[in-house]
Model the fold of this input.
Amino acid sequence: MSDPALRLTGATVGYGDVAIVRDASLTVRRGEAVAVIGSNGSGKTTLMRGALGLAAVLGGTVEVLGAPVGRLREHGRVGYVPQRHTVSGAMPATVREVVGVGRLPRLGLFGRPVARDRAAVAEAVDAVGLADRLDDPVASLSGGQQRRVLVARALAAEPELLVMDEPTAGVDAASQAALAAVLARVSAAGTTLVVVTHETGPLAGVLRRAVVVDSGRLTYDGPLSGAGPAAGPDCHHPDEATARPVRGYRLDQPRPAPDAARVRDGSR
Amino acid sequence: MELLDYGFMQRALLASLMVGLVAPAVGVFLVQRRLSLLGDGLGHVALTGVGVGVLTSSAPVGTALVAAVLGAVLIELVRARGRTSGDVALAVLFYGGIAGGVVLLSLAPRGQATNLDAYLFGAITTTTTSDVAVFAVITVVVLGVVWLLGSRLYAVSDDEEYARAVGLPVLPLNVVLAALVASTVVLSMRVVGLLLISALMILPSAVAQLVGRSFRSTLYLACAIGVVVSVAGTATSYYTGTPSGGTIVLLAIALFLAVTVAVALRDATARRRHGRRTDVHAAHPHEHGEGCGHRPVPHGDHVDYDHDGHLHAPHRTGTGVHYDEHSEPAVATPPAGRERA
Done:
């Protein structure tokens, strides 16, 4: 019916003129929930940054919502949750202010927020379960809550495609469960999810499809349960995953030497 | 008031009012961006503009403005290229700026006003009527741009990568911020001085962030502090005969130290008083919440969590959450679980 959320055709992505991900082809349809899995340095983060216009496309094509990456006319259709452990910058800021930033792409260069925008910000904060903290300084929130603030910031733009980098890393079990519930609702509402992660356990109930990146190449594309040799029994019961925190399989465990030597850069 | 009888003092106080208002309004974004010393560097560059102005007998304020804005744009373009040599390029620009200014000023013909100290550290007698007019225009323009683009500047200063990913015009916004800094530097060259302006951009923000809760309130507070120290410092320098810039900055530093101590004392006494009334868990890495695995127990106006037989009450403060012990043997339950410590 419409353009795919994300389409890579023989894409080579990297920094400067160094290619990190080579010859990647991938199509993510609207409404899908996809995990991008790989060990540290595999290129999974670079792949995602290429789709966001943060890394250079050195060959092939990367199309986002039907337009070449970076050429999308209307901003705010792509949401991004970076991997940051804290939100608080040097200056104090309230949850409302941080999440309000997420609405800016919808406002153009000089537009000022109107009632509709303020409502969107409040809804986004409510969606991540922090409505009662709207006017608290973000510095007073726990690490997991701050991560949810970043999710709310991305949701405030009401994006069609939501890209997240390691949303569950370093977050306690309660916040992981809260995050999974938020993403399940967002996904059910039709938003396309692309989640870069090395532990799919906490989100196994939300993400259906997995793409595995290894040494800069896509090595697997299919159902989440079939991804990777280490897929444990947990992953075959995605329904249980949201009920209780599950240990996901981790692909970034220490590896034998030959591979370890290659595990470099990529993630930055 | 005696000091208002003199025309030069009226002009100096007007100029200090404007720079006190504008410098923190731009400075908060620099602090947020962790680029506090950009103002200092642009002050160096502006000195070359001053030298050119003195040599060509044109108004040094105008030439300094041109030099500082050009330097600011250049710095952002160098930074945007992201090469490792960017750091060195900035150093070359900054020190080239001050060296050029010193040499050009030394070449000025006799009889020209070439008091280098006054440009570097501020002097209350130097503000001319036309300076005040130029300063007024700069003030209006800078405050107008901050009002118009403030939330975008905040977004880019706070998380540049995110801003880029969602399609905000990062480079143009950075250039605008650098140009605002350059304009503020020039605004400062009479009463604060080119070498000390950075302090007036940063210190009021540093004081305000100790007590502020939101970015907006911190910004307003920083501007208020800037106006107070700037005007008070200028007035003081009239009586003490000291350079106005140095006086203003020392005043700002004194305020910074006083507020730092006051905030530390307030936190310490609040913690001690709170500790007398109820037991507080020193460190509690687990965050209680819905579905955290501990049984929620309604308790008055809040919910406790049953943690291995202890009732833990979340207590939110400005700096985070800690847990109070609300189990039975404890003293009479404090009225609220969320009072500010």
Remarks:
- Confidence is low (pLDDT under 50) at residues 229-268 of chain A.
- Chain A touches chain B through 46 residues (CB under 8 Å).
- Strands of chain A lie at 6-15, 18-28, 33-37, 56-64, 67-68, 78-81, 161-165, 192-197, 209-214, 217-223.
